[in-house]
């Protein structure tokens, strides 16, 4: 009996020691004080999904869908005359409508880091100081005009008149139920 108790104490001691040492060596990498101060002075600003027409040769060629979020300085946000989300959306429209330097339709030449840098620089220029510190891309898509028309046409099916499932007496009219359909009252009976 004494051997069993001593074995249990020994197993507990070894387990606690191994957990302690593994936690000491598995801690998160240390960040510098400057990096910690920078992170503490920034705020994450979630973006909105915007749809910007891609105009080329005077005609809409497609639509650019983007959801961008930002890391911005708290001090810079506090000095703004309007909410940051609305200022960002306005600037993105100014930058992207009719833009020649961003040809999203040509996916082979699209430069994502360059796009993020252009957005950051354009926003900071509009805001008058270094408010935006990082641009985060959450969604970035391009739909051609034909893609949009195809989706719109598939949803505009002719309206079909509803089929009555219950007759005037409140009974299920089995002969009027479309094949494969189940009535709410039929399933309740």
Report on this model:
The chain has 189 residues and is of the alpha+beta class. 43% of the residues lie in helices and 21% in strands. It has 7 helices and 4 strands. Strands 1, 2, 3 and 4 form a 4-stranded antiparallel sheet that branches. β2 and β3 form a beta hairpin.
Short description:
With 189 residues, the protein is α+β, with helices and mostly antiparallel strands. The chain has helices at 2-25, 33-40, 74-78, 84-96, 112-127, 145-155, 184-188, and strands spanning 42-45, 49-56, 59-73, 132-144. It contains seven helices and four strands; from the N terminus they run H-H-E-E-E-H-H-H-E-H-H.
Which helices and strands appear, and what pairs or packs with what?
Layout: H1 2-25, H2 33-40, E1 42-45, E2 49-56, E3 59-73, H3 74-78, H4 84-96, H5 112-127, E4 132-144, H6 145-155, H7 184-188
Antiparallel strand pairs: 1-3, 2-3, 3-4
């Amino acid at each position: 009996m004494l051997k069993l108790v001593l074995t249990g104490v020994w197993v507990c001691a070894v387990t606690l020691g191994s957990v302690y040492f593994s936690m000491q060596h598995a801690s998160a990498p240390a960040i510098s004080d400057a990096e910690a101060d920078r992170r503490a002075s920034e705020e994450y600003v979630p973006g909105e999904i915007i749809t910007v027409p891609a105009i080329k040769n005077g005609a809409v060629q497609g639509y650019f869908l983007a959801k961008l979020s930002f890391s911005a300085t708290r001090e810079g946000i506090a000095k703004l005359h309007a909410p940051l989300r609305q200022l960002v959306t306005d600037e993105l429209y100014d930058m992207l409508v009719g833009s020649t330097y961003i040809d999203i339709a040509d996916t082979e030449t699209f430069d994502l880091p360059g796009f993020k840098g252009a957005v950051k620089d354009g926003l900071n220029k509009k805001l008058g100081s270094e408010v935006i510190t990082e641009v985060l891309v959450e969604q970035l898509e391009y739909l051609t005009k034909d893609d949009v028309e195809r989706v719109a046409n598939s949803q505009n099916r002719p309206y079909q008149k509803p089929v009555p499932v219950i007759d005037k007496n409140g009974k299920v009219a089995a002969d009027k139920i479309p094949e494969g359909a189940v009535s709410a009252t039929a399933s309740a009976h």
